[in-house]
Every structure is written in structure tokens, then in C-alpha cells.
């Protein structure tokens, strides 16, 4: 008869509740992995599948708020369970209701509405605010604290089993938290420069990772490596800002690395500073190779019938046309305002007259596969 007096709608805390909490923790863990990846690396191109998962998660979290008003509570003061609906509601309102409502904020629906009405005219400020809104969602996902409920559930199970089970669960939870910490830190490493539109001295620009040909895997691996390096205090990365012409020549132009310092200095004196506006054609395919360019700041797009690629700070184009007096192999167009240093063929050959050994080396030099000639 006592069972007949129990509320018919509230859930049994010992059976369905445990599996339900495990399901919610799994969904939350997937969100904690996927959302930082989306806001940091996908730049609004997450695809229909991920947007569907976002909407599903938001819907599930909203439903979860309602279910928690009817879900039985395991009392820690006694071996029994609280199944009275009034007590359940009062307990939930005083404990997890506000955090759960914040975590259940329907960002997925907001994104769908934003894409529907602003897909044709996106603005930089709107994009930034949307990314910040999603980042706030990560901070509001306090459902990670529900792992404590799962741990209590595992403790109940492990108490009836071997000690090795309890140790395994503790080690597993430790590694999960370490993974999340490294994952979040790695995403933040890329997310912060992205909000600042990749300043000229940021590590993303130095590694040429903000261009379209850089994959998400490359960006993520660099970010996680930097995060792990900082967390283990090995001080990865240079504190020097590579802005000087000497650094550009020495590090980015392979054929200057082993040259006589006097030759490099003579070349530096011949450089001419040039500025191109967005959309300007810097060189055209098959045009005479009369100049070579070094990018101080900006992005260019290199294209011919065989390949397409973007270049940015520290890269160069024109290449061996300076030595062979050939023609440019691709058209190069400025994607942003570009500040370049150019070296004319006449100036280059006038310097080479005083360095015959270097001239022979340059004529036989083959650029590696990562260098782009035009």
C-alpha cells in the first residue's frame, strides 16, 4: 500500500536516475570537447551535423531542467530516498536550478536564427559577439559538476566490488579532467588571437596558421602543444618579435641562410618598400620576372592552373626568377593591405657580380616543397 501512495510521475532514484545521470554527463562531456573546437577553429563553418548536435543538446538540457523537478533524490543522511514532489522541487530550486538554467541557455537556437537572418551580410563585430556568447556558454556549463553525482554512483557500485574497480574509476576521472584542461587551454591559445584578428606579433601569424590552407588539425596541434609547453613550464616560443628585415631574410628565405653576411647586407640595401591595397594584382602569370617580393605584413593569394595558396608575413614570392631571368609562374593578388619589400632583377644581379660563388650556388639551388615560387 505504501508504494501505491508514491507519486506516479517522479522517477525512481535507484534505477533510471543512475543511467540518466550517466547519459547527461556523457552529453556534457561531448559539449565540453566540441564547443571549444567550434568557437576557436571552425569559424562558423561547423556544418549541419554539429549544428544539429547543438540544438539537440540545448533541447535535452531544457528538458532536463523540467525532469529534475520530478526526479527522486537520494538522501545522504539516510539510506532512503526522497520521492515527495514538493520536497524535490524545493530542494532543486535551492540547489541546481539556477546553474542548470544558465547551462541550458539555448545558444544553438540563437545561432540558427543568426545564420538565417545574417548569412548574407555578416559583420566582424557580430561574429565576435557570437563567439564570445558561445564562450560564455562554456563557462556556464556547470553541469561538469554533475560528475560528482556520477562519482557517487560509481562509489556505490565499487563498494560492492573489488578495490581495483575503485582505483580504476579514480584514475579514469583524473585523466578525463587532465584531458579537458589541456583541451580547453589549447583552444584558448588560438581563440584569443582570433578575437584580436591575429595581430602581427601573434604566434598564429608567425606560424602561418590563419590562412585558409591550414587545417583544423594543424591549428589544434599547435595550440595544444603550446598549452602543454606552458603548463609544464618549458617556455615554448620566442619572446622576440620577428619584424626586422634581417630576421625575414635569414629565417624565411632559404637561399640566404648560408650566404655571406656581407652579401645579405648588400641585398638589404637594395630593397624597396611597397604598399598594395586589397584586391591589387601584384604580379601576373607569365609576366617577366623583374622583381622579387618579401611580405612584411599582409596576406596574398597565389594562383595558377595547378595550385592555389595563401601567403602571409615573412613569406616571399618571385623566387628563382631573379637568377634565371624567367617568367612568373602564377598570379599574385593582395587579400589585405600588404606591406612588401621588393628586389629588382637589376639590383640583384649588380650585387651578384661581386659574389660569383654565391651566384653559382643560387643558379643550382632548388627550393624545398614548402616554398612557393611564382
From TrEMBL:
GO terms for biological process: regulation of membrane depolarization; sodium ion transmembrane transport. Keywords: Ion transport, Membrane, Transmembrane, Transmembrane helix, Transport. PROSITE patterns: CNMP_BINDING_3. It is a multi-pass membrane protein. Residues 255-360 form the Cyclic nucleotide-binding domain. It is found in: Membrane. One of its GO terms (molecular function) is voltage-gated potassium channel activity. The chain crosses the membrane at residues 20-41, 53-75, 96-117, 129-146, 167-186. Pfam families: cNMP_binding, Ion_trans. GO terms for cellular component: axon; dendrite; HCN channel complex. This is Hyperpolarization activated cyclic nucleotide-gated potassium channel 5.
Amino acid at each position: 500500500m505504501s508504494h501505491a501512495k508514491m507519486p506516479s510521475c517522479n522517477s525512481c532514484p535507484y534505477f533510471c536516475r543512475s543511467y540518466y545521470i550517466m547519459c547527461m554527463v556523457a552529453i556534457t562531456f561531448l559539449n565540453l570537447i566540441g564547443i571549444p573546437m567550434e568557437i576557436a577553429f571552425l569559424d562558423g563553418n561547423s556544418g549541419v551535423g554539429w549544428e544539429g548536435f547543438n540544438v539537440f543538446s540545448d533541447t535535452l538540457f531544457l528538458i532536463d531542467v523540467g525532469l529534475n523537478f520530478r526526479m527522486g533524490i537520494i538522501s545522504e543522511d539516510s539510506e532512503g530516498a526522497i520521492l515527495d514532489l514538493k520536497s524535490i522541487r524545493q530542494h532543486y530550486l535551492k540547489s541546481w536550478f539556477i546553474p542548470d538554467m544558465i547551462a541550458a541557455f539555448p545558444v544553438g537556437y540563437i545561432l540558427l536564427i543568426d545564420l538565417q537572418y545574417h548569412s548574407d551580410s555578416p559583420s566582424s563585430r557580430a561574429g565576435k559577439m557570437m563567439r564570445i556568447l558561445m564562450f560564455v556558454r562554456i563557462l556556464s556549463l556547470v553541469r561538469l559538476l554533475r560528475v560528482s553525482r556520477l562519482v557517487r554512483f560509481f562509489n556505490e557500485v565499487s563498494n560492492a566490488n573489488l578495490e581495483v574497480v575503485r582505483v580504476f574509476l579514480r584514475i579514469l576521472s583524473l585523466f578525463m579532467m587532465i584531458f579537458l584542461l589541456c583541451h580547453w587551454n589549447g583552444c584558448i591559445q588560438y581563440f584569443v588571437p582570433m578575437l584580436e584578428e591575429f595581430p602581427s606579433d601573434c604566434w598564429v601569424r608567425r606560424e602561418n596558421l590563419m590562412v585558409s590552407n591550414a587545417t583544423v588539425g594543424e591549428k589544434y596541434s599547435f595550440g595544444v602543444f603550446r598549452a602543454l609547453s606552458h603548463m609544464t613550464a618549458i617556455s615554448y616560443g620566442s619572446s622576440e618579435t620577428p619584424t626586422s628585415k634581417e630576421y625575414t631574410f635569414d629565417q624565411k628565405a632559404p637561399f640566404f641562410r648560408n650566404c655571406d653576411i656581407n652579401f645579405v647586407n648588400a641585398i638589404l640595401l637594395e630593397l624597396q618598400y611597397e604598399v598594395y591595397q586589397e584586391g591589387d594584382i601584384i604580379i601576373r602569370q607569365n609576366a617577366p620576372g623583374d622583381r622579387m617580393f618579401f611580405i612584411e605584413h599582409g596576406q596574398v593569394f597565389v594562383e595558377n592552373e595547378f595550385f592555389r595558396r595563401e601567403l602571409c608575413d615573412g613569406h616571399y614570392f618571385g623566387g628563382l626568377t631573379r637568377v634565371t631571368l624567367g617568367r612568373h609562374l602564377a598570379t599574385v593578388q593582395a587579400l589585405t593591405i600588404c606591406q612588401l619589400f621588393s628586389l629588382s632583377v637589376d639590383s640583384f644581379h649588380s650585387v651578384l657580380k661581386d659574389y660569383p660563388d654565391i651566384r653559382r650556388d643560387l643558379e643550382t639551388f632548388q627550393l624545398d616543397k614548402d616554398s612557393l615560387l611564382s
